[in-house]
Structures
1.
Amino acid sequence: MRNVERFSRLFLVMVVLVFLVGLPIPSHGQSSAIDPKADQILRKMCDYVAGLKQFSVHTENTIEAILTSGEKIQFDNPASLLVSRPNKLRAGRMGDIVDQEFYYNGKTLTLYDPGKKVYATVNAPPTLEEALDFARESLDIYAPGADFIYKTSYKRLMEDVVSGLYIGTSVVDRVRCHHLAFRGNEVDWQIWIEDGDRPFPRKYIVTSKWMTGAPQFTVMTKGWNLSPRLTEDMFTFAPRKDAKRIDFIRLSSGGMSQR
C-alpha cells in the first residue's frame, strides 16, 4: 500500500468480510483449549512428514526486524532441503541475512559459507534427530526446516501451546489447505496444511508476542519431491581449493569455547 489511508480502508473491508462470514477471531480472553480438529490435522501432518524416507523441498522464508525507530523491515532468505532418513541431510540458505550450506552424512556435520569461502567440520551423532539437537545445543546452528524434520515434531511444536483453532480451508500457492492457528506463552503461530492424502505443511507463520511491533517469521514450502535422485556424496562436503577450514565456536555451560 502507498499510504496509511489506503491501508486503513483495506483493513476495514477485511474486518467487515470476517464478520460477514462468521470467522472466529482468537482473543486473549479465549479459553485455553485445543480444537480437536486442529489437533488431528496437525498430528496427521507431523506423522506424515516423519514417515517420509526421503524428500526434497524448497522454502521461501521472510523474517521481520523492528528498527529503533519502530519501522518494520523484511528480509528474504530462501532455503532448500534434501533429507534421507535415518541420517542424512543437506540444506542451504541464501538471501539477505545469511548465505550458508549445511551437510550431514551420519558421521560429520559441516557448515560452509560460499561467500566468505570458509567452512567448519565436526564429528556428529549417528542419527538425524541427534545431529539436529547437537547442532542447536552445542553449536547454536539451526538447520532450515528443522521443526518439521524431527520424528517428534508434533511434541516440539506443541510444547508452549495453550490454545488452538481450526480456522477453515484456504488456498496457498494454488493448493487447498487447512488453516490452523495456535497460541503460546512466547509466540503465536499459524500453519496451512495441504488437504488430502499428502498433508504437507505449505505455509507457517510465527509471531512474536512480546517484542514491540510483533515481528513475524514466515515460511512457504514449494516443490515437494518424494523421489529425489540422491547420492551419498551429496551429503558430504568436498571443499574447493580456495575454501579455508576454520573451527566451530562450541557452546559450553561457562560460555563459548573454540573446537
Note: The chain has two domains: 29-51+153-220, 53-150+229-259.
2.
Amino acid sequence: MNRRSLFHCWGRHIVLLVVGGCVSPDSRITRVRIADSLDLDLHPPETFGQKISVLQHVEVHHSDRIFETLVQLEISPEWVTLVGFTTMGVRTFTVRWSGEELFSESSDGNDMPFDPKYIMADLQLALWPKNFIKDTLQIQETLGAASSREVMRAGVPVVRISYEKTPAWRGHIKLQNLERDYRLEIHPLRINK
C-alpha cells in the first residue's frame, strides 16, 4: 500500500479539507452526529479519569478497502491528542481536544482525510467510562472475558465495540458503525510510562 492511498478514506467521514500545515480550531464542536438522529456530546479530557500514552496500529475497513496508520494517543486532564504517522514514521496529522476546542493540523500539505470530530467521537465511544456517555446515549455493556459495548437507538444497535482486555486501551479494540458501514481495528503497539 502506498503512502497516498493510506489517507484517502475514513468511511463517510472524508471531508475536502486542505489545511496545508495550518492549525484549524473549531471551538463550537461539542456534539457529534454518530448515526441518523443520534448525537454524542463530547466530554472534556479530565472525565477520562487517568493519563495514558499509547502507540497504536489502526486499520480502517470501509467497503472492500483497508487503510492503515500508526497513531500516538495521549490523554491527560488537559488534552486528548492523537498524532497520525505513515508506516514509515512520517507525521501526517495531529488532532487535539481540550474539552472546549478541537484543533486539527495536517503535515507537509497532506489533505486531512477525515473530520477530526468523528475521531474524537469514536475514541470516546470506545474508551470513556460508561457513566459519561450514557447521559445522552442508550448503552448496553457486557463485562468479562468477552467485554463489549453497544450504542443503541430505539433498542437496535448502531455501533458495536468489542474489547480484548481491561482497561480497553491495553488490548485489541474493534469498533463497527453498523449504519455508516465502517469498522476500526485498533491494536496497541507500545504503552508508554
Note: The longest helix spans residues 116-127.
3.
Amino acid sequence: MSFYSVTFAVFFTAVVVLYFLLPQARRILVLLAASVLFYLSFTPQYIFVVFALILLDYCAGIFIEKASGRSRKAWLALSLSANLGLMAAFKYIPAVLGIPAGPMPLGLSFHTFQAMAYTIEVYRGRQPSERSLSVFAVYVLFFPQLAAGPIERPQNLMPQFREVHVFSSANAVAGLQLVAWGLYEKYVVADRLGNVVNPVYARLDMCSGPLVAFAALCFPFQILCDFSGYSDIAIGTAQILGFRLSQNFNRPFHADSMAEYWKRWHISLSLWMRDYVFFPLCGRRPGMVRICASIMTTLLANGLWHGAQWNYLASGLLHGSYRVTELICGRAISRSGWALHSFWVRPVRVARTILVFLLMAFAFIFFRGESLAHSFHIIRRLFTGWGSIMNPSALAQQLPAIGFSPTFLVRALLIICTVETVQFLQARGPLRPRIALAPAWVRWGLYYAGVIALLTLANHNQAPFIYFQF
C-alpha cells in the first residue's frame, strides 16, 4: 500500500472518519483493525507469527510484574529471546547458512524493538503491565509507524490510546503539511536521487572517480529523505488522529561532531541502543577503556541490526571508530586546556560539520554496497579518472553510457539544495508555526506550490522505502 496512492488516501480517510465518529470505547478496535489491514497489505503470511509474539509479550509483561527474583528474569529472557529469535530467523540465519530468504515481515525490526522496550521497561519498574490485549496489540502494530518507526517507548505511546481525542482542524492541517513534506522527501527527493545513485553503482566500471564521488555524496541525502520522509508521514498521519509520535530526525548533516550526529540521526533507534545496550554495557562507574569498548559494541550492534552482511559490520566498525577517536581526542584537548580563539570558532565549526558529513558519506558506501566486495570496488573507483575533471567534455562522454545527461545531474543538485534550504530555515525554529502566522496569500501560495511540485516532480517509478527491508 503505497503512501503515494489513491488506495492509501481512501484507507486513511476511512480510518479517520470511523475513529472520530465512533464512541471512545470502540476506537481502539478501529485502530487495531486498521493496523492489521495495513500489515496484511504487505506480508499477510506472517500475521499469525506477529499475533503469537504480541500474545507472548503481553503475557510476559503481566508475569514480570507479578513475579519476583529469578522468575522475573526468566520471563524477560523468554520475551527477548522470542523477539530476537524471530529477527534472527529472517535476517541472520538465512545469510549465515546460505539459505534463500523469503520476504521479510513488514517492519520486523521496528515492532520487535518496540515490544522489547515494553518488557524491559516493565522489568525495570518504569511501566505498569498492560492488561488490555487490544491496547497492547495496537501499541506494537500501530499502523502509522509500524513499517519503519519511530520506535516508541510504552510510556509515551500507550497512555495515548486511552486519551479522548477530538477532531482538531489545527491537528489536521499540521499533520497534512507534514505528510505532504514527507511525500515530497520520498517521492521527489529520495527516488530521484536514487535514479542517480543506482545506475552509477550498477555500472562502476563505466564511471570515473568524479561521477562515483557525486553518487556517493547523493546517497546520504537519498537515504535521509527516504527515511525521514517515512517518519514525517508517520508523525503527520498520527497527528491527524490526535497522537504524538517522537521526532526521528533533526538535520543530522548539520551536526558538527559524531556525538551530535547520533543525537540527530534515527533518534528513536539511537536512544534505544543507548538505553538498552550502551548503558548496561558501561555499568555504573565505567573507565575510559570500558566506555570506548561499549561504544564500539553498540555501534557494531547498530550495524548488524541492519542485517548479517559484512558491509553492515564494516559500517558499524567505521561509526564506532569515528566516535571513539572523537571521544579520545576531545578528552585530550580538554585536559590540555587548549581553546580556540573566538575568531576561529565559527570557521572551525563549519569545517567540522563538513568533515562529519564526508566521514558519514564514506561510511554510507558500506551501507549502500550490495556486499563488502562491492563496497571496496566503489572505493577503488573513487580514486580513478580525476584528470577528467579538467576536461568536462571527457567527463560528459561517460554520462550516456549510464543513461545520464548534464541536466540530469544539475536537477539532482537543485533537489539537494531545496532540502538544505528547508533545513537551514528549520535551524531558526519550527517551520510550520511560522508558516501558520504568514499572510493567507503566502500560506496558500506555499500550499499550492507544494502540491503542484509533488504532483509534477514525483518519480513515477516509485521505489519501496529503503528501511522496509529492515
Note: The chain has a mean pLDDT of 87.
